[in-house]
Structure formats: C-alpha cells, structure tokens
Amino acid sequence: MEVNRYLVALTLVVLAQGASLGQDEKLRYDNYSVYKVKYETPEQRNLLTKFAEDRENFRLWSEAKNELHLMISPGALSKLESEIQKINVTAEVFIGNVQSLIDLEEEANLKLSSDGSFGWKKYNTLAEIYEWLDGILVAYPVITESFILGQSYEGRTIRGIKISYKSNNPGVLIESNIHAREWITSATATWLINEFLTSQDEGVRNLAENHDWYIVPVLNVDGFVYTHEKDRMWRKTRQPSDISSCIGVDPNRNYDSYWMEYNGASSNPCSETYGGPNALSEPEVKAMSDYISSNKDKFNVMLAFHSYSQFLLSPYGHTSEEFPPNYDDMMAASKAFADAVESLPYGTVYEYGSVAEMLYAATGATNDWAYEQGIEMSFTIEFRDTGRYGFILPPVQIIPNAEEALVGIAALLDKCEELGYLELKTTQ
Predict the structure, then answer these.
(1) Residue 2: its pLDDT value, please?
(2) Bridge partners of 174?
(3) pLDDT of residue 337
(4) Rounded Cα gap, residues 247 and 202, in angstroms
(5) β-pair type (171-175, 301-307)
(6) pLDDT class for 112, splitting at 50, 70, 90?
(7) Which one from 182, 357, 382, 403 is the annotated catalytic residue?
(8) Which is it for the CA torsion 338, 343, 346, 349, positive or negative?
(9) Is there a contact between 236 and 251 (Cβ–Cβ < 8 Å)?
(10) What does residue 12 show for φ and ψ, rounded to 5 degrees?
C-alpha cells in the first residue's frame, strides 16, 4: 500500500535522525508520526506487535480490536511501508509530527505556570501535585487523611489521599498515572479531589459525602517525573533490567493476575508491554498490590484511570471466551457511565466491555487483580481521546475530560448501589 507521500519524503531529509537527547535536554520527537494500522487476523497483530518492539523506531501507542496506533521515527517510514505490504495490512497517518503537539503542550504549560499556582488549565508536575496535596490536608484536616503506599525504585514516596465525610460509607479506590505518559489521568484525579472538597453542587456533594474516596494521583512516580524532565512519551517504570539495556516494566502487566499467561504481556524488556522478570517485580506495583489486599474490605469499587481510547473496560483481561459471574451487572454500570458522559454537551462517546473482548489479551493488570481480591466492580477507564492527540491531550481539555469523569462515575456508582454493590463489607 502507499504510505503518506509527504512523510515518506521526509526520510530523504532526516533518514539518520532519531529522537535526540542531550545530557541536560529533553528527548525530542521531531517529525515522528503516529499511524493507525488496521489488521484482520491474530497473526497480523502478532507480527505488528513484534515489529513494534524495535523501540528506537517504533512505539506502540494504543490498540483495539483490529487496529493499533504506532509512533514511527522519520527514518523508519520506508521500513513501515515494506512491512505493511508484506503482511497485507492498511495504514494511515493521523499525527504528522509528534513534537509539534509536545511543543504546543509545553507552551500552554509555561504560559499558565508563570505565577506558580496549581490548577487544571495546565499539567502539573509530581512536586506540584504533592505540594498541593499538603495544602489540602492542612485546609481540610477533618475529612482528609494522607496514606502512603510505599517507595518507588528511585526512592520517591507514593502517596494517596482519603476523603471521608462520615463513617460507614462505601469505598471507592482510584489508581491514576500507572502509565507515566498518561498525564490526563492525574490531572483528572486531582480535579476530582478538589471538586469533592469544594463544589457546592448538590449532586457532587451527595457523591462526595456518601462515599469514602481513596485516591492515588500518581502511582508510577519515577516514570511520571521522567516524562516531565526527559521523555514525554515514556510509559513504563524506571527500574533497570538484569538481562537488557532497556529500562522499565509495564506496571499494568506486573500484577499477580494471570501474569505472563495467554500472551497477555511481552517477555521482551524493550517492549512497551514488558511484564517484568516476575510478578510484582516493580516496587510501585507491589506497594499498590499490598495496599489493595490489606484493605480490600474497605473498597466496593475500583477505578483505574488510563488514556487514551474512550473505553470503559472490565475483567477479564486474559480471555474473551469466559466472563465474570457478575458481568451483566458490570455492563449495566458501564452503560450508565457511557450514557451519562454522552449526555453532556461535549457528546463524548465511550465504548465498554471486558478488556479481552474490546481490546486483546492483557494480563497482570490492576482491574483483574482487584477483582480477584473481591472488589466485584472493578474497571479501567480509558479517557479522551481516540487518537487525534493521543497521550498529548491539550491542557484545554483537562476540565472537560474531568467533568465527563465526574458525571460518568456518579452514574456508575448509582447503578452499583441499585444493584447492591455498595453495601458495607465491614464496619469502618
């Protein structure tokens, strides 16, 4: 097939150009493009994902049934053209220059960060988020409480905040920014914290005051810092490998739930979906796993925030041939979420179903692990968008995305209550 001629021509100019990184500079993605590649068979998918393990030239951005999104270096476009002809798939470009989107994001952030204030018109750093959390804890000492999951590989503290207005509320656990480059997740999580504490809207007050909220704004703290300081497109943790020069593990393939089974993760340390040398090898995942298993009776609902694709995903991740016993209830809650989001003026559409049903086999993920711990309503939310900006969602979309999350979660919890899932497991 014919790949976009303009981008192929770029290879003549920048054939030897890769992502550049000086000692004190950020990695740049000048003329890197993102392609939507459509396939029809599992064999084609396997070849494409194997192809994408050449991390110097290709990065897997997103994947759904019969389609994946690949970021491609300008020097590898001819290789892409050759491969897609060889395996008989189709491809089209929808981001022509990744760096141009990063530059726009940085410009917006710099413009809005000049006064040093915290807010949701820009993306905040880990230090800014933690400083803001400290202020929240001081301002609301009665209804907020800090909790510590543990330490990251590089020694950073993994923090959470509990919001509780009264005793004997059902609990909602939110995990955010397990994938480092998904900045919209921590932005949405912190916006929700602020709404639960400050909103005067009757519906928000009901939501905030009648549930206990356990929110971890940034789980993958090392990777998140790295995306701000070095590589905006970094996904994984930052722990080195004993068998490769490639660094990091996909933390959402590292939980002890069908770990490395059913081809649900990669065994290649250079892959974006590398499951790690063993389950719970990453201290961040081990800390979250321990927290969930030690406090599972407090949680009625688990929500893992991700981007992008606009999906609401439920267990199972290991198979599309078998479904959880309460799958119909999860679908009813998912429909409530999707309908509520679409009813907003933005008209954003979410699809829903199990991970393996909607996407592909993915094992070692948070929602499956939480489900196995007895949290029967356990979901992954893939926020905006569907590929126009991908991970580099403009800051102007933070609040609209967060508003959608709020109304969607409210509707989901209403349905969970109707179905009997918000009954207390233990007196709190």
Answers:
(1) 39
(2) 215, 303
(3) 99
(4) 47
(5) parallel
(6) confident
(7) 382
(8) positive
(9) yes
(10) -70, -30
Domain covering 106-418 in this structure, CATH number: 3.40.630.10
User: Residue 274 and residue 49: Cα distance in Å, rounded?
Assistant: 12
What is the torsional sign of CA 330, 322, 297, 129? negative
Quick one: pLDDT band at residue 427, thresholds 50, 70, 90? low
For the chain, what are the domain ranges?
Answer: 5-96, 106-418
Check: CATH 3.30.70.340 for 5-96?
A: yes
The string of pLDDT tens digits covering residues 55-110 is 889 999 998 888 999 999 999 999 888 888 899 999 999 999 999 999 999 998 88
CA pair distance 356, 335, nearest whole angstrom? 18
| pLDDT score, position 20 | 54
Please determine whether the domains at 5-96 and 106-418 fall in the same fold group of CATH.
no
Pairing mode, if any, of strands 351-354 and 377-383?
Answer: unpaired
Burial class (CB in 10 A: 0-12, 13-18, 19+), 244: exposed
384 vs 43, which has greater pLDDT?
A: 384
Per-residue H/E/C for the chain: CCCCHHHHHHHHHHCCCCCCCCCCCCCCCCCCEEEEEECCCHHHHHHHHHHCCCCCCEEEEEEECCEEEEEECHHHHHHHHHHHHHHCCEEEEEECCHHHHHHHHHHHHHHHHCCCCCCCCCCCCHHHHHHHHHHHHHHCCCCEEEEEEEECCCCCEEEEEEECCCCCCCEEEEECCCCCCCHHHHHHHHHHHHHHHHCCCHHHHHHHHCCEEEEECCCCHHHHHHHHHCCCCCCCCCCECCCCCCECCCHHHCCCCCCCCCCCCECCCCCCCECCCCCCCCHHHHHHHHHHHHHHHHCCEEEEEEECCCEEEECCCCCCCCCCCCHHHHHHHHHHHHHHHHHCCCCCCCEEEEHHHHCCCCCCCHHHHHHHCCCCEEEEEEECCCCCCCCCCCHHHHHHHHHHHHHHHHHHHHHHHHCCCCCCCCCC
CB 256 within 8 A of CB 280: yes
Residue 418 designated active-site: no
Q: What is the pTM of this model?
A: 0.93
Comparing CA positions, the residue from 85, 89, 66, 72 lying closest to residue 14 is 72
How confident is the prediction for the chain on average, in pLDDT?
Answer: 92
Q: In which band, very low, low, confident or very high, does the pLDDT at 384 lie, cut at 50, 70 and 90?
A: very high
